Structure formats: C-alpha cells, structure tokens
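User: Second chain of the day. Same drill as before.
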Amino acid sequence: MLPFRLVEMSNFHHSLPLYAYSVGRHNQYYHSRPDGFPAYQIFIIHKGQGLFRDLENGEEYTLSEGDAFAFPPDRPHEYYPLSHEPWQIGFIGFIGTLAAPLLEQVGLLPSFPQRPDSLEQSWNDLGEIWHDSTEPSQQRLFEISVKLYQFVLRLRVDNSSPDSSLHLRADEVRNHTLQQALLLMNQHYTEPLLISNLASAVGYSSQHFQRLFLQQFSITPHRYLQNLRMERALQLLKENASLQIQEIARQVGMETNYFVRSFRQTYGQTPGVWREKGKKKSLTAP
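Assistant: Same format as last time:
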C-alpha cells in the first residue's frame, strides 16, 4: 500500500456527513505540521512507539502499539518514533458535519491515547478504505463514508468509569517518567544541568515537564535541583574548611557568583559568612 493518498474532493463529498480526506498505513518518521492539518485525524499504532506533541499547548502523548489517537484540524503538531523498531501507524483524515460530534461521542475527543479492543480490524478497515479511494465514483464515495463511520464506531471507548485502566496506564507512564527525571537530577546535580536538557532526556517539552513536575511533587524542578545543590554545598562547607568557595560552586555545578547569590537567597547569608559563623560557634562551644 502506498503510504498516503489524498482523496480528490467533489461536490458529492459535501453532501456526506463524513468523507475521507487522506488515508494510509506506513512506517512513520519525524513529521511536523506547524500549521496543522485541514481535517480531523485518527492514528492507530500497529507496532512500535512514538511521541505526538501538540505544538499549541505543549501537551505530549506517548503512542504505543495498540493505541488509537484522534486530533482536531488546523492545530499545530509534530510526531516522531521513540522506539528502535519501526513505528508502524495507520491514519485517516476526514471532514464532515458529523466528524466532531462523532469523535466526541465515541470518546476519541478530547485528544488522549485510547486502547480499543478492535484495533486489528481497524487496521484492516484502513486498507479497504484506501483501496476504495482509488476509484472515486459516487457509489464508492458513499461506501467510503459508510466504512469510515463503522471505522470510528469500532474505536468506541468506554468512559463510564473515571478510574479506567486507560487513565491508570497513562498515570503510570507519567509517574515513571517523572521518577526517571528525579533519578537523573540526583545523579547529575553536580554538573551544569539545564532543566530544558533534563526535560528532553525524558521526552517532554520544557514547559510541559515543569508543569507535570510541579503537579506531582509540589515544587518546581528548578527549585528541587537548587535544593540538592544547596544541601551538598552545606555538606562541603562543613567537611572542608579550606575548600575555596569557587571550588564548592564548581562541585555543585554552578557558576560562582550565581552560587553565592543562590546560597544567600536560601540561607540568608553568603557561604563565606555561614562558614565564619560556624567556626565561631565551634570555638565557643563548651
């Protein structure tokens, strides 16, 4: 199957409540649409894993084998594989007065990865729709509209329970990712670690990562990282009275002036003053 086919539009299309705009199945590589796509889209993941990013609000979604995912038209986005194996996806773009209400009714909008039971059949449905689009007669167009409706219905999601396994799976993925971020911070806080690089390392945009981190831990990643560094700085000040302030700053991954300023903001005094007060206390102690 060719990876993509744009179905030619005709006046008959506009008399249908649903009509296909594009359809295909292929191994997906990096793809960016800064202006969005002019139709509603549904992606089904046959193999592999990839990341889908909403460029308008920074939301990111990991799409894995067995997932279905819908996205509205004219909204900037990009997507690319995360796995070493091919990221094999099927997709269909469609328009019509029934498109939005149908996607909302079956639970595919608002956008969120779903896991329907009929994914293999849906994969085959895409092949049939693609084949029918090679002969765009009015009868074929009508048949495509019917098959498109059936295709969407097969992906219907049961959202009767707010604590569904789908949401639990999404929470597990997010929590695991944030725990990975914590591990990286604890392992590398002595290096000049940037939050943007950390976010990228765990597969999030910087803005989205900071928002999730704050929601999960009630502290910003920047503040958490600074706390790690300040605690280590106190330890170094206590353990080695001859260690230069510049060296302490280097060992906690910070430029000297920034380190001194951050230390004062955290403890109300510079590291030099803190050290001198500590010496006086030890001399006057009984």
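The chain has two domains: 5-154, 163-281.

User: Great, on to the next one.
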